[in-house]
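Reopening this ticket.

The earlier resolution said the output was attached, but the attachment link was broken on my side. Pasting everything inline this time so it's all in one place.
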Amino acid sequence: MNKKFFILIGVLLMLVSNVHAAGISIQDNRATADYWTAKNSSGETKIDANDLEMLNLQIRQKSPSIVDLAKYPEKISAQTLHDKITATMTIGKFQGTEIPKLFKNGAGLTEYSFTHAKANCNLDALPENSEVRYALTIKRANLRLLPEAEGWFESKTDTHYDQLQATALDPGEPVAVLAESKDKKFVFVDSRTYAGWLDVTTLAFSDRPTWLKYVSPQNYLTVIASRKTIPQGASLFQMGSKVLLRSADVQKDGSWAISIPNVDANGTIIEQGLNVPKDSGTVKGALPCTENNLIRQAFRFLGEGYGWGGLEDGVDCSSFVQDVYRSVGIELPRDADRQAKAMPRSVSLDGMNRDQRLEIIKKSKPGSLLFSTSHVMIYLGTDDKGEPLVIHAASSYYTFGDQIAKHYVRKVIVSDLHFMSKDKVEMIDRLTSVGSL
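Inline output:
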């Protein structure tokens, strides 16, 4: 064999190695916002305020999980509260007596741990009518499906996919406090899109008028960076978070005057006044709701880490979508299945063949959402070869050779729709619907 042959083999092996390293993530200019916004000449058309309000109304009407906190009742019955707590258990399939096949601290979940966590919900001690209390988060806080801080995982070695995690709430989130755990370390709350258990130390309790300022702010900043710490190096805010303004106008020194909820020794709210620089990480109000702004916002997350239920200061597929949409003034529910049901316009792909699916997808607007069972992706459009691409917070995918191999991505990436599930089915054939505004 001659030298040229060995050089050719070396080049081929290098190419195979690079493909394996890249996985399903696209790395070229198609993984830039500019590529897609340049292809969408009508993508700067703004949805006006009245139409935006109507879209949010349609979403709320389809989404029982989106709560109008401003109209929250002052009292809640024992039966209603019991149903809310039980419904939250059911999300994790914890409502029955069978011990889940999960792991805690590297060992199998015991009957004691399971029954203790459920008993901590204190369902037997609910008063006939509970007075609703009002609170705001003072830090990024984990909303839990049971009042339990330790993680429950699907394997001994897993540390990422805590099955008790519902979602993460950013600082300044108003919640309606409905009940207390038996050990008094947690409270059961309704937030704007999710109910669950919060560590009581993450909250500042407030009177209703102060609380309502954060529920329905008149003047506020929206975080449009993928994440931002306010003040610098302190509390983490994810994209879409609202920060209350103390003054509607920029200060003479070029800063914004904001209020951040804090807490005194008794757990009562203190409104901390701060000045933060006016920069590209925030905008007054919300960004204009346009297709191209949805794409630009999605790309602000590109390459950032995956965080199941908002753990590890990251986003999973549905919180990624929720954050992007919220930054342009659209409030979606939290989980992918709820988002699929909530979209103002939805086209079912059930029963369609590959060609029929592709035809509908290619006609969809950039920024539309593509849903499969338990996953959601933002549609970018078709590339120069006519291939539909998406941006999404990807957890894993499978390859099939001599053995079935699961590959963890755990990042926000751009990809096509040909990556496979463990059932050896490409994503294009697993899609259930396309949702759009």
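Reporter confirms the inline version is readable. The mean pLDDT is 94. The radius of gyration is 23 Å.
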